[in-house]
Design goal:
Elements: E1 7-11, H1 16-27, E2 31-36, E3 51-54, H2 60-67, E4 70-75, H3 82-87, H4 89-109, E5 117-122, H5 145-164, E6 168-173, E7 175-177, H6 190-199, E8 204-207, E9 213-214, E10 216-218, H7 219-238, E11 245-250, E12 256-257, H8 258-269, E13 275-278, H9 293-299, H10 307-325
Parallel strand pairs: 1-2, 1-4, 2-3, 4-5, 5-6, 6-11, 7-10, 8-13
Antiparallel strand pairs: 9-12
């Protein structure tokens, strides 16, 4: 059921995931407004019909302006680079946690009945979980400031629902990939970096033995989870149900080794680049794969895109960009 109407505010809508989401919403006939400070995203990436407000997600006035007459919020604005969060601790905290609280407070005050929020949490809250696959009931143990801020957001999200009537859903993204990730950005994951190097015929170096596992989830499936979560909260609001907080993994439930990832990308790019192995990174998590059962039960969706299919889309998009710029 499509419960959307009016305007949906997307914070961080000019970023990688946000751009894909905005296009999906507009293609579905939805009015979209974007709040983004353009520190990492590009205004040219969003649909022409989307309204853009350039502003900081931790600026209460900018958030209140952006939320005016909105019907729901998807909050994606963040400093998602773990390395940058480590080196610029307080500034990233302001964006990642204070920004989330600013959005929640504005949602509380924006309408007679608080506006619902779907927002990006992260599998980083789990840290090095001992039991796989990682289900939502796993005790959080973040190993980075980024993960700590996302966990803090979830604690405030629960309080926002209980005390202030702000229904919100935290989606715990695992390793998101897909077309549009900039391999030169500090926010990019290993996939876009490997794909770009291999496409040029260069070699890649894997930190460690390559047998560490990850749960790689395609951006199109992430967008479907965001929209399904938003529709679910809007339906609850229309039915005047009690405010709720939920945390939901967004993942495939399938473990992929980093070596397998690199080999698949080499095949898809037709590259002769060599795959080398270096020393493991300090603090690197050995295995991370999510349990997708709750996503399937609450949102009635599953991550349908197989890894090879998603990687092929990423590689072909990169080839198109290279042809246009070459």
């Amino acid at each position: 059921m499509n419960e959307r109407g009016g305007t949906i505010l997307v914070t961080g809508g000019c970023g990688f995931i946000g751009t894909h989401l905005c296009h999906a919403l507009v293609n579905a006939g939805q009015r979209v407004r974007v709040l983004d400070n353009l520190s990492s995203g590009k205004a040219s990436g969003i649909p022409d019909s989307a309204e853009l407000i350039v502003g900081d997600v931790a600026d209460a006035n900018a958030v209140a302006e952006a939320m005016s007459d909105a019907d729901g919020i998807v909050h994606l604005a963040a400093i998602a680079s773990v390395e940058r969060c480590n080196t610029d601790w307080v500034t990233s905290h302001r964006t990642n946690l204070t920004g989330t609280l600013t959005v929640m407070e504005a949602a509380r005050d924006a309408a007679e009945r608080a506006l619902p929020i779907v927002w990006a949490s992260s599998a980083a809250i789990y840290g090095a979980a001992r039991t796989l696959p990682i289900a939502e009931r796993t005790s959080p143990a973040p190993m980075s400031p980024y993960g700590a801020d996302k966990l803090g957001g979830e604690l405030h999200g629960r309080a926002a629902a209980e005390i202030f009537g702000v229904s919100n859903t935290a989606l715990r993204f695992f390793n998101v990939y897909g077309p549009g990730q900039d391999p030169y950005s500090p926010y990019s994951g290993v996939i876009s970096i490997f794909a770009e190097k291999l496409a040029k015929g260069d070699g890649v170096t894997i930190n460690g033995d390559g047998q560490q596992t990850r749960d790689f989830v395609y951006v199109g499936d992430v967008v479907r989870a965001l929209i399904a979560s938003l529709d679910r909260l809007l339906r609850r609001r229309r039915l005047e149900q009690d405010a709720t907080f939920d945390a939901i993994n967004v993942c495939t439930g399938r473990a992929v080794t980093v070596a397998m990832l690199a080999e698949t990308l080499r095949d898809l790019t037709g590259s002769a680049g060599q795959i080398d192995y270096g020393p493991p990174r300090d603090g690197d998590i050995r295995d991370s794969v999510g349990d997708a059962a709750r996503m399937q039960r609450l949102l009635s969706i599953r991550a349908e895109t197989r890894l090879e299919e998603g990687l092929r889309a990423l590689v072909e998009a990169g080839q198109d960009v290279a042809a246009q710029t070459g």
